[in-house]
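seq:
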Amino acid sequence: MLVPVGVSVFLLSCWILTGLVTVEAKTAVVYQFFGKYVGTIREPGFYYASPWYTKKAITIKLQNFESCKSLVTDSTGCPIEIQAVIVWKIADTAKSQFCVDNVEDYVRIQSESAIRSFAALYPYDSDDANVVSLQNNPEIIGDALKNEVADRLLRAGLEVVEARISHLSYSVVVAE
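struct:
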């Protein structure tokens, strides 16, 4: 009689202990109850939540994305090569988990799309000091690129911290 009771108490204790979770620095844990979002814990520490909850740890550290070199045309129709670095982080854990399948793929696709459309708004170079150009105004261009990418990533709960052009040149076709 004591063996079944002992086994039951042991199994119940093990099940209750599955509710313990450790949240590390720069990590968040998203809780779900049968597929419904319950909440997020962002503060580092040792917590207990119902064993019925599904727990998923996600990083909220800054992350980098470097686009591939893209051949685009600037606002004057001249073909150029452009590449950018985007620094981003997860700001809204619920949106990042439930709005997109893969956050990294979403960042890649949306950033490259934004870079392509953004490059067409400005000339590569300009002799006129009043005209903002990709080559001569890196701070203004960086801020504008950041805003362009941020608008697209905000839908998935992502925050763009910085965006800068890492490579800019005339296309090989023009150089020949």
